[in-house]
Amino acid sequence: MLNFLKSKSLFNDGMKVLTYSEKKLESEQVGWYRSGEEIAYYQNNYRRESMTNYQRCYYTFTFTYKFEHDFDTVYFAYSQPYSYSDLMDDISEIEKRKLDYVARNTLCRTLAGNRCDYLTITTRTNFDNEDR
Q1: Three-state SS for 123?
Q2: Neighbours of 21 (CB within 10 A)
Q3: Which of 18, 77, 80, 106 has the most neighbouring CB atoms within 10 Å?
Q4: 11 backbone dihedrals φ, ψ, rounded to 5°
């Protein structure tokens, strides 16, 4: 993978790639897990100019992966995926606790029509007359 901008990466400190195998989930009930070998993160020869005309380097990330199952679909990720549905479920769980110091509000709607919610965490007296 090319065109990373950071000069340092946790991959150089031993972090592995997040991996999800549909076959591994079926056979072992394992969802996302860390894997990969020969992991490297390094500066490549590609350059880009920033707004100050200063040459900036791009970085490359490489790894190898041995596929465990034939006809499998495997996904790779830098960090644990967190979906919009996961977020809404987590906010709903917090809201169900009916905590006096937490209020849920909608900031706006996304272009897709989804709610863009936020939580206010403070003392109840600071909420004034906000809807919960």
Answers
A1: coil
A2: 22
A3: 18
A4: -60, -30
Helix/strand/coil for 28? helix
What predicted TM-score, i.e. pTM, was given to this entire model?
0.63
Q: How far apart are CA 90 and CA 47, in angstroms?
A: 41
pLDDT at 121 over 70: yes
**Per-residue CA distances from 130 to 77, 101, 103, 105, 126 (Å):** 39, 12, 8, 8, 9
Residue that is written with structure tokens 């380097």 in the block: 57
SS3 percent helix, strand, coil of the chain, rounded to 5, is 20, 40, 40
Answer whether 92's CB lies under 8 Å from 98's CB: no
From the CB of residue 97, how many other CB atoms can be counted at a distance below 10 Å? 8
In 3-state terms, what secondary structure has residue 130?
A: coil
Give mean pLDDT, residues 65-86: 92
